[in-house]
Write a structure and sequence with these properties.
This is Autophagy-related protein 27. It comes from Linnemannia elongata AG-77. It is a single-pass type I membrane protein; Single-pass membrane protein. InterPro entries: Autophagy-rel_prot_27, Man6P_isomerase_rcpt-bd_dom_sf, MRH_dom. The chain is an alpha+beta fold. The chain folds into two domains: 171 residues, Mannose-6-phosphate receptor binding domain (Cation-dependent Mannose-6-phosphate Receptor, Chain A); 61 residues. Helix content is 25%, strand content 28%. The chain is built from three helices and 13 strands; from the N terminus they run αβββββββββββββαα. The strands form three sheets. Strands 3, 4, 5, 6 and 7 form a five-stranded antiparallel beta sheet that branches. A five-stranded mixed beta sheet has the order 8-9-10-12-11, with no helix packed on it. A three-stranded antiparallel beta sheet has the order 1-2-13, with no helix packed on it. The longest helix has 28 residues. It is elongated. The C terminus is likely disordered.
Length: 291
């Protein structure tokens, strides 16, 4: 039995299909670029907040809770998970937390004592009955603030599910070139419905590179029209100047080749009639008469 050999067209088709499948497989395996706080991109602008790659303590206000006081603090790192010092694991959130809520009781005498620790934002593997979570940093433009030259931007850090409520932290970075202290912590603006919000004025919040909008290239037809009208304009201007200088022409007489353009509509009509007659096989007027 003789097996037919595949044709060249079939071989080419199979090659194309194989290439498409290979490219789809590669695309599916590609992973997103890891978050790098030295190269944060927001609407075409680049920001570098790597100078803030450290752990900050944001203290809340103490409120009376009989018989003592209570204060909710936050430990924040906008670039990576909080580094827990050796021997202090009990005073910090679980490993992988980027933003940790630390509720403390304040005594009249003695050191404050931690009552609860909640990982507001960060990554963690799956545990018993608790799904895995990813911090998934997301940077977007924020609302414009008066008397601020640059538009602020928000960095959202996601967290897990605590007591049936999703947790996250939103840090609003505000460009302020006068704030150069890298040890200055952000300001807590609130915590509501599982979202902790912060405001952070710093020079690092200013754009280090602004991307100009890319102009789309002109299509072939647009290029043709541009060239055509450019030549037409040059033709009219130079013709008018020539007629004025050489013949002293004025008004419509300045138009170069005025007689041609005056008869041009009739020429177009004649050409159209000729083409139509050629297509339909009809003859117009004239011709020889046999005698």
């Amino acid at each position: 039995m003789i097996t037919p050999r595949p044709s060249a067209a079939m071989v080419a088709t199979l090659a194309i299909i194989s290439a498409l499948l290979t490219s789809s497989s590669v695309s599916a395996q590609d992973t997103p670029t890891p978050y790098d706080c030295a190269k944060v991109s927001v609407s075409g602008n680049s920001y570098d907040i790597s100078a803030l790659k450290k752990t900050y303590l944001v203290k809340g206000e103490a409120t009376p809770v009989y018989p003592n006081k209570q204060r909710v603090d936050y430990i924040v790192n906008p670039c990576q998970a909080i580094v827990v010092p050796d021997g202090e694991a009990k005073q910090h959130c679980v490993a992988g937390a980027w933003v940790c809520q630390d509720t403390k009781v304040i005594f009249d005498d003695g050191e404050p004592k931690t009552l609860s620790l909640l990982p507001i934002a960060g990554t963690a593997p799956a545990a018993d009955g608790v799904p895995a979570r990813e911090v998934a940093p997301l940077a977007v433009l924020a609302d414009k603030i008066e008397n601020v030259a640059e538009v602020p931007w928000n960095l959202t850090l996601k967290g897990g599910l605590i007591k049936g409520q999703d947790q996250s932290a939103v840090i609003t970075f505000i460009c302020d070139t006068s704030v150069t202290d890298d040890n200055l912590a952000p300001t807590l603006t609130g915590y509501q419905n599982g979202v902790a919000t912060f405001s952070w004025k710093h020079k690092s919040a200013c754009a280090v590179h602004t991307q100009l909008p890319v102009q789309e290239s002109m299509s072939g037809f647009s290029v043709f029209l541009t060239v055509f009208f450019s030549f037409a304009f040059i033709y009219l201007v130079l013709g008018a100047v020539y007629n004025h200088q050489v013949y002293g022409a004025k008004g419509l007489d300045l138009l170069p080749h005025k007689d041609f353009w005056r008869d041009f509509p009739s020429l177009v009509v004649d050409v159209v009639h000729h083409v139509w007659d050629s297509v339909t096989g009809r003859a117009r007027g004239g011709g020889y008469v046999s005698v």
